[in-house]
Every structure is written in structure tokens, then in C-alpha cells.
Specification:
single chain, alpha/beta, Enzyme I, Chain A, domain 2, TIM Barrel, 2 domains, eight-stranded parallel barrel, 16 strands, binds phosphoenolpyruvate, binds magnesium ion, PEP_util_CS, cytoplasm, coiled coil
Length: 573
């Protein structure tokens, strides 16, 4: 019988396939004890399972090749790190020894204990680390019973599961799996990010998926709306075929825009920069005619490892980015590490009550000046190979920027003295993501060469709504009159002082919002290359003078509905 199961779209695209239901790695294990004389055997059994899991991950990693090897490999490395985590392993040993529990029950207790800690952290980024941990624990558990843990995927199937680990996705796709539907998960998880770059449709948070879908059911998955139709009827199938045709036409049309300028109908050029996370992204950005890299988040170099990356290591990464853009500017954001990210280097303060409001971004950098200066030196050295811009995250005001400028000058002098070649001028910019900095932009506009609005954080701080808390629903949304007024304010101050204002938060990559941002005066967008052509199309379809004439009305909108009405009217011209 036909049924419609709602979820959240996490990676776009439609797919039709047979369901393959994978029941959760739930460790539904009853409390079981062993005798004192069985402890050593039980410990050995556990350690063998851990070793087998480790071997399995090594062999999975060895099988990866091509562009995915790096991206997926990093997730596998993270899983391998978790496997070596003394807290996890020692805790298990302790439970078996002191509690005389079976290895299975010890795994369950340890899992629940860690889940409680992660839950208490109240941060979706860290919560998605729990997914990684669950995955690792699930694999160990399977090995305790000598079961294969690889997900058997068959061409034409839709995997339906409680969750999916990033490390599985590429393999599933290679096996021909056409979409993934998960009961839990968030559109901000690593899996979601990876699914988007693999163009694999993914629906998350489809709460009824495990109860409502049986193995072999035919599923129609919509990765945009999050809707899953179980056993679609003829009408659904017709609409699906129409959607496929539309998508193919859209792709062909978008493909034609590769070498076209990002220019409005009335001839105004808009700069489209790329948010790049890897050299593959840089290559794509280059091929799509991006103005440059508008955001490279360097904290990725610091995550998933215990030692800090040294100057030479960082320099090589930054230099390769710069070479990849062959002459177009690359904006390197200095470390935005804090307790909200899975920091293992020990830099971030681990037990902050409220890490989003804690020592992160430039605050952390200035608390560890030796680390910060190492990074500045590495970036400056890369500037010998092409234009580089430095972007500072989480700036609250002028004092921090003056301090950064001072350190930057010092690093430049040192490098020159040591005989390094560096560019004569490296632009320094600030992320506008702390509301007070946005309001008081006039106070530091003279000490920056450019700014980039980080709406992901700006919106959460402005609305007091955690960007990762799904329970807040539409409360976390840029479509709020307060957000629009603040954006307008920042853009106006920049224009007044001839300081370029870009936007690099997710909002900039949403082509449906482009008319609104153009009306507010934004002329520089930075977004993932995957959606660059869509945004270019939206810009080419826009008439700037018309949008400008509607700007006052937009700023008068009193609520989300008013903003949506404005958008609808502006898009239908
Ligand atoms: C932002 O806050 O909008 C941003 C681009 O930075 P991040 O998502 O890395 O915090
Ligand atoms: Mg941010």
C-alpha cells in the first residue's frame, strides 16, 4: 500500500529503488555476567574483535582510490582514532574486569555512558561524532560474533537505516545503491556533506522509516523535500519521470553557464567565490570560473589529529591551494577551532559550558600566539605563489584586528629577514559573524581590506538559536527581519567605505535567496562549487534595478511570511 513518510532532505536528487532495510546497530544486549575465571578469555575475545575491526578499516582504506580516497579516508582515520581511544578501550576492559560483564554488555554500557556525555554536550557537531562512535562500536559488536560488517549494497537499492557513516557512503554508491534514507541524522552531519559531494540522494530524520518500510518495498526518494513514497502509485511514477526530465534539462542548461559571466540582466557583474574544502573543490571552482576561493577553513587541518600541523606542512597545503587557483585570490581563514569542534590537539578548552560562546576563532588564536603566528607565517609564505587573503573568524571588534595586524606584520618581517619570499601586500579581512561586530562595523572598517559575512554563526547568535539544534525548526533561519536589517547595515557600511563585503555562510549558496541578497546590496557571494552554477543562473535571471526598487519594501517586512511574499513577488517578474 502506498504511504508517504516525511523526513528532511539532506542531499538533493530523486531516486527510485527497492528498499534494503538495515536494522540499527542497537546493542540490545541483556545484562550478562561472567565468572571470575572467564575474565581473561572475555578480554581476549574483545581484543580480537577490536583488532579485526582495525584490520577491516585498514583494508577498507586501502580499497579507496581516486578523489574519494582523501575525503572518505579521513573519516576512516577518525574511526581508527576512536578505536585507539584509551577511554573507550580502557573503559571496556574495566567493565569486564571489575563488573564481570560479558564483552557485549560492556560494549553496550560503555556506548550508553558515552552517549550520555555526548548528549549533555548539547552540540550537534559533537553529536554527529557520537554517530561515528556508534558506527565503530557496531563494527566491534559484529566482530564479537564474527559477522561481516560491510553493508551489502545491491544495484538499484535504497538503503534504509537508522544512520549511515560517512565511510560507508562511497562504497554504497560504488555498489549501485541509488539513495539512502535514515531515521536519525542531521543535514549538517559529515555524512550529509559527503552525500552532497557524491551527488547521492540522502534523506535524514525520516522517523518512521524503520517501521514503515519493509525489505523489497519500492521507494521513491526525494532528497530535496525529504519525502519518501513507499510503493508509489502510477501518479507518483509519472511525476518522478517528469522530475527526472526537468532535472536533466536543468543540468544541460546549467552546463551552458560554465563559461558565462555572473552578470545580472541589466549588466551588473557579481563576484562568485568558492568555499573550497579540498583540492578537488579548488579544481571545480577554477573550472566553473569562480572569482577565487572565498573561504578555506583551515581548522580541518587541525582536526582528527593530536599533533599540531607545523609551519611547513601548512605552507604546502596553502601553497597548493594558491597554485590550484592559478592567479585568482585564495582566502585562507585562520584557525576557527574551539570546543565546538572535535579538537584533539588540546588547544581548545575542553570543558567550556557554552563552547559556541567560548574561546573559539580569533579568541583561541590570540590565546595561543605561537600557534597563530606559525599559521600566519605559513600563509604568508604561500603568498609568494599567488594572491592570498587572510580572513579572521569570530572577530568581536577593533582590538582583535589590530592585534592580528601587529602579529601579521611581525611574521612578515621575520620571514623576510630569514630570506623568504612573500607578497608585498596580503589583504586582511574579518568574518562578520558576531552580532556586535556587525552592528559596530564602522568601528573597524578602516583596519580591514574586506569582510565576509558568516551567516551560519551570525544567524545563530542574532536569533539565540543553535545552528545545529533541529528542534528549533524554522527559528534558526535567515528569513527574519532582524537578520535582513543587519545584513543591510553591514553591506551599506562596506559600500560607504569602499570595503568589499562578501557572504560565505550557507545562505549565500541558496539560489532562491539571491534576489533578496542582491536587493540588500550584496555583490560578492562565496559558496560551495556544487551550487555555483545555480546561483549564477539566479543572478543572470535577476534585474538589479528592479530588485533595488523593491529593497525598501523588503526591509519593511515584519515577519518570515512577509519576507517569503517579497521573495515570491521578486522571483516571479
Ligand atoms: C559562518 O559562520 O557562516 C561560516 C562560514 O563559518 P563556519 O560555518 O565555519 O562557522
Ligand atoms: Mg562561523
Amino acid at each position: 500500500m502506498r504511504a508517504l513518510l516525511p523526513g528532511h532532505g539532506a542531499s538533493r536528487g530523486s531516486a527510485l529503488g527497492r528498499a534494503r532495510v538495515r536494522l540499527p546497530h542497537v546493542l540490545d544486549v541483556a545484562e550478562q555476567h561472567i565468572r571470575q575465571d572467564q575474565i581473561d578469555d572475555e578480554l581476549a575475545r574483545l581484543h580480537e574483535a577490536v583488532d579485526a575491526t582495525r584490520r577491516e578499516m585498514h583494508s577498507l582504506r586501502a580499497r579507496l582510490h581516486g578523489a574519494l580516497a582523501k575525503e572518505v579516508g579521513e573519516f576512516l582515520d577518525l574511526h581508527a582514532l576512536l578505536l585507539d581511544d584509551p577511554e573507550l578501550l580502557h573503559g571496556l576492559d574495566q567493565l569486564i574486569r571489575a563488573g564481570r560483564y560479558t564483552a557485549d554488555y560492556a560494549l553496550r554500557l560503555q556506548r550508553d555512558r558515552l552517549a550520555a556525555v555526548f548528549d549533555g554536550m548539547d552540540d550537534a557537531y559533537l553529536k554527529s561524532r557520537m554517530d561515528d562512535l556508534d558506527h565503530v562500536i557496531g563494527r566491534i559488536h559484529a566482530h564479537l560474533h564474527q559477522r561481516a560488517t560491510d553493508t551489502p549494497g545491491v544495484a538499484g537499492e535504497v538503503l534504509v537505516s537508522d544512520n549511515v557513516a560517512p565511510s560507508e557512503l562511497a562504497e554504497l554508491q560504488q555498489q549501485g545503491v541509488v539513495a539512502v534514507v535514515t531515521a536519525a541524522g542531521s543535514a549538517l552531519s559529515h555524512s550529509a556533506i559527503l552525500a552532497r559531494s557524491l551527488h547521492l540522494p540522502l534523506v535524514v530524520g525520516n522517523a518512521q522509516a524503520l517501521q514503515g518500510i519493509n525489505d523489497g518495498d519500492v521507494l521513491l526518494v526525494d532528497g530535496s523535500t525529504g519525502e519518501v513514497v513507499v510503493n508509489p502509485d502510477p501518479g507518483d511514477l509519472r511525476r518522478y519521470r517528469e522530475r527526472l526530465r526537468d532535472a536533466a534539462r536543468e543540468q544541460r542548461e546549467l552546463g551552458r553557464l560554465r563559461s558565462k559571466p555572473s552578470r545580472t540582466r541589466d549588466g551588473v557583474d557579481v563576484a562568485l567565490w568558492a568555499n573550497a574544502e579540498s583540492l578537488e573543490d579548488v579544481a571545480k571552482a577554477h573550472a566553473l570560473g569562480a572569482a577565487g576561493v572565498g573561504l578555506y577553513r583551515t581548522e580541518f587541518l587541525f582536526l582528527r589529529r593530536r599533533e599540531l600541523p607545523g609551519e611547513d606542512e601548512q605552507f604546502q597545503v596553502y601553497r597548493d591551494l594558491v597554485l590550484g587557483m592559478s592567479g585568482r585570490p585564495v582566502t585562507i581563514r585562520t584557525l576557527d577551532l574551539g570546543a565546538d569542534k572535535a579538537d584533539r590537539t588540546g588547544l581548545a578548552i575542553g570543558d567550556e559550558d557554552n563552547p559556541a560562546l567560548g574561546v573559539r576563532g580569533v579568541r583561541l588564536a590570540l590565546a595561543h600566539v605561537e600557534v597563530f603566528e606559525t599559521q600566519l607565517r605559513a600563509i604568508l609564505r604561500a603568498s609568494a605563489y599567488g594572491p592570498v587573503r587572510i580572513l579572521v573568524p569570530m572577530v568581536s571588534g577593533r582590538e582583535e584586528l589590530l592585534e592580528v595586524r601587529r602579529r601579521l606584520r611581525r611574521a612578515g618581517l621575520q620571514l623576510r629577514k630569514q630570506g623568504h619570499e612573500i607578497a608585498g601586500h596580503v589583504e586582511l579581512g574579518a568574518m562578520i559573524e558576531v552580532p556586535a561586530a556587525a552592528i559596530a562595523f564602522h568601528g573597524f572598517v578602516d583596519v580591514v581590506d574586506f569582510v565576509s559575512i558568516g551567516t551560519n554563526d551570525l544567524v545563530q547568535y542574532l536569533l539565540a538559536a543553535d545552528r545545529n539544534n533541529e528542534a528549533l525548526g524554522e527559528l534558526y533561519s535567515p528569513l527574519h527581519p532582524g537578520v535582513l536589517r543587519l545584513l543591510r547595515h553591514v553591506i551599506s557600511i562596506g559600500a560607504e567605505h569602499k570595503v568589499p563585503v562578501a557572504m560565505c555562510g550557507e545562505m549565500a549558496g541558496d539560489a532562491t535567496l539571491a534576489p533578496m541578497l542582491l536587493a540588500l546590496g550584496l555583490r560578492e557571494f562565496s559558496l560551495h562549487p556544487a551550487t555555483l552554477l545555480e546561483l549564477r543562473k539566479a543572478i543572470r535571471d535577476s534585474d538589479l534595478s528592479d530588485l533595488q526598487s523593491r529593497a525598501a519594501k523588503l526591509l519593511q517586512a515584519r515577519d518570515r511570511a512577509g519576507i517569503e511574499r517579497w521573495l515570491k513577488a521578486a522571483t516571479s517578474i
